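Predict the 3D structure for this chain.
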Amino acid sequence: MRRLFPVTDMTAPAAPSGTEAGTPPGRPGEWSLDALADAYAYPEGDGVWLRANMVSSLDGAGQHDGRSQPLSSDTDMRIFGTLRGLADVVVVGAETVRLEGYRPARAREAFAARRAAAGQGPAPVIAVVSASLDLDFSLPLFTEPLVPTLILTGAAAPADRVRAAREAGAEVLVAGDGAGVEPARALAALAERGHRRLLTEGGPRLLGQFVAAGVLDELCLTVSPTMTAGNAQRIAGGPPLAVPARFSVVSVLEEDGFLFTRYRRV
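Done. Predicted structure below.
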């Protein structure tokens, strides 16, 4: 993998394989997990930081046949794992949980020392956003997590489903006065529990809500060198903003035609 931006020396030749900081010998250009963790480190400070990690085809599809995996690559999955390894909480929509077959986040030895130094638990918490709580509470996401799965919902959520979630071991947090979740209140509820390094993996409707609420700080977008055609969703859905939200590029990495980009809100 090579860094395309920021460029530190416009005249220097490309670095030979293995010279990138943390790059191990072996496959040309492969970065170690430590190098990736350094490259994707959260900003210093005590404030809440919400980043999204998404993948898109060249023609704007955020998924293929309902899933993101067909657009992905091995390096994309390494970055996916790294972003999880740095996060306190992974925030995800209920539909994505159902479509992608979400499981609990696992503890990974590669990030153990880094997480311990940051005061984090062994694995990130999974927080599911759902108005209806139409979820299968017998799945491992609820029965086998290292730390209890959180459910973010509204005050008008069905009482029987809230009860079923709690009986399954999930912790239910109310983050809205109606049936749905208010993005800013969801982030505040997580922050109250000491979770400030937040990661959302979608889906498109949830990401659109975060963008519309103005609470998304960073987008990590993998541009896949694929074309899908069809009518697949984009990475963010929902009503359009009156004024487009502006982001600035932070970094661009490339491997095998995939672009791994980072943008921060201006």
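The first helix runs from residue 33 to 39.
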